[in-house]
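Report of the visiting student (M.T.), summer placement. My assignment was to run the structure pipeline on a short list of targets and document each run. The first record concerns 6-phospho-beta-glucosidase.
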Amino acid sequence: MRMSFPKNFLWGGATAANQFEGGWKEDGKGDSVCDHITAGTVSTPRYFTNEIKEDLNYPSHEAIDFYHRYKEDIALFAEMGFKVFRLSLNWTRIFPKGDEVKPNQKGLDFYRNVFMECKKYGIEPLVTISHYEIPYYLMNQYGGWLNRDCIDFYLNFCKVVFNEYKDLVKYWLTFNEINCLMMGVGDILSGGIQSEDGPMQDFNQIPTRKQQQNRFQALHHQFLASAKAVVLGHEINPEYQIGCMVAGGAIYPYTCNPDDIVLAQQEMRMNYFCGDVQVRGEYPYFTKRMFEDMGIVVTMKEGDLEVLKKGTVDFYSFSYYMSTCATTDEDAKKASGNVIMGVKNPYLKASDWGWQIDSKGLRYLLNDLYGRYQIPMMIVENGLGAVDVLEDNTVHDSYRIDYLREHIKQMEEAIKDGVDLIGFTPWGCIDLVSISTGEMKKRYGFIYVDKDNEGNGSLDRFRKDSFYWYKKVIASNGKDLD
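After the run finished, the structure tokens were exported:
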């Protein structure tokens, strides 16, 4: 019999501390890199400042104030029927500078309270240990993940939380979208390797050789930290399920020109490079030529490769928002005007932010990844960023329902194909700050939060039409999608 969603399928939603938690400077929390990044818009990049300036808006400082409203929000998630809730730990809430030996007890207590609240409703936490939350002190004093010392600081963090929450948390992710360190904004957010005031680097900006060298060196240190964390976590609690998390995307050749086909094949490696290291425990076969072509030499110590081999993950999780097309045709690229989004696919529509909507690409990617790795899969980010209008205390977001419905249909097709898909946590299950632009206007949630781009609003929560629709989806285990 062909499979549909399994009975124990983990339906839920996803968030990140820097985008929804708030509570900046409360109860001993230190500065993260995100606390030094201003708001922006689609046309105005977010700005990094070493000094916090009173006349600028830093969205992470308040975000949507989950820190004070977690009981209200978790109750709403429970009302929808969540089986799992993906959230991240704010590293600086537990280790304010990042290099301390002893943790901040009030920070530990906060997350224990959050996890206890989840447990009250039978919701399984899925915890991202590092989600664009490197302590500012580690950037400023150590150079971030370029410094191998960060491995030990991270492992101390892991040791504390693995022991502290072993009775409350089963599922962990070591790093969020770890492959984003290879891209523009990852320098600060993922690697903590920029300390000068300035605009966040655009995804489309061509990196220098030095930047590429720094990124892959920092990434090697994160690979080691992840592998060691997996081993440590399993030692502390053999029941722990510890996964990787990769920014995923389907990439098609723009034409049947062999040059386009080869290029698309090469660009699909963004899904494999980090996955191969974290799932297979070794750098992929194409690394040698890739590094030679880029002029990169990653410094490794004796025993590093053995560490990677020993610390492979239990499951592969990824984000999926869109597909792109690859081409060598310069005229076609100029016409599209956005390198990271790829060449426009004439068969697809796009979101308000230019992201091409492609539900079938999710099925394609699931089959591609599962065929490569043969371990359980989780989609831990997926959703539609859109401009929502609050009317009569609700939002009529049929466009979001349509987007998710079609993606869930393709998830079911992938399961029928034989993919071992175990969970789905749509991104921004409650409206939160956009990581790319720092806006509130770009909304993903099932729950509307009254706050605007300038930080004004009551922060009151309102159920959208999609809230009630997703509740039906979960209750029916994916059968009722109307």
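The chain has one domain: 10-475. The chain has a mean pLDDT of 95. I thank the supervising group for their guidance throughout the placement.
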